[in-house]
Structures are given as C-alpha cells and as structure tokens.
Amino acid sequence: HHPFDSFQVVRRLQAGGFAEGQAVLLMHGLRSLMLHTTAPVHDGMLKKADLDNAMYLFKAALTELRTEIRVLRQIDRAALRSEIEVAEQDLDSLRHRLSEDMINLKSEIQIELNQYKSDQRERIQSMEEAIQEINDKFTLSLGMVRTEMEAVKWETTRKGIMAIY
C-alpha cells in the first residue's frame, strides 16, 4: 500500500483551520480516495516477492538453457567425432583400395611388358633364324660355286695339259 502519514495530514488540516473531527473525517476521505485511485496501478505493479520469484525463475531458466546448450554442444561434438571417424574409415578404405588397384595395375603392366619383351625376343629369334637360314643357303651356294669353279679350273687345266700333249 501507499505510505500515508495520517497523523501529519490531520495536523496540517487542523493548522489550516479545520476542527479535529473534520480533519479526521477529511483524512479518511483523502485516504479512501487515494487508495481507490492508486488501486489499479498498485494491482498492476509487481510486488517484491513476485519480482524476486520472477528473477529466480529467470535465473533457473537461464541455468537450464546453459545446461541444455552445453549438452547439445557435447552431443554435436560427439556426432561430429563420429562423422569424422566414419570419414576417416572411408578414406582409409579408399586408400587401401587405391593401393590394391595400383598393385594390380602394376602387375598387369609388368605382365604386358614381359609379354611384349617375350614377343620381341621371339620376333628377333625368328629373324635371326631366317638370317641364319639365308646365311646357310648363301654359304652352301658359295661352296657349290667354289666347287664348280674348282671343277672348271681342273677341267680347264686338264684340257690345257691335254692340248699340250
């Protein structure tokens, strides 16, 4: 309620020329009028207990909100760690697969290279055999030509000797 010094009001009214009964009656009227006028304002105002209660509830809600935010952050961190672990596992799996693919590719290339070398060796061997065969035929033909030349030489020498005798 509004602080109202009734004794002070009565004294002032008496000092203003009102009798004590009149001053008391006026004081009661003023007090009622003041209470009636300020009642809606007073009812709309928060009382200290209500304000303290609201402050307590606000602080409690703020503490609860902070706790909830902390818990949500921890959950988010855990989820992020989990996602990172999954991504790392996927990356390791891809690295392993890439490594295997590289090993397989290297093996395939080595096999193809060895096959190419083998084919080239066979080709060279075949060419060398053909060259050797030609060389053998040439040597044989040359030997036959020499033999024929020797035979012609002997025949000529023999005919020449026979012609002389």
TrEMBL record:
Pfam families referenced in this protein's UniProt entry, alphabetically: CCDC90-like
Keywords: Coiled coil, Membrane, Mitochondrion, Transmembrane, Transmembrane helix
Localization annotation: Membrane; Mitochondrion
Residue runs in coiled coils: 77-137
Gene3D superfamilies with a match to the protein in the record: 1.20.5.340
The keyword ATP-binding appears for this protein: no
Name of the protein described by the UniProt record: Uncharacterized protein
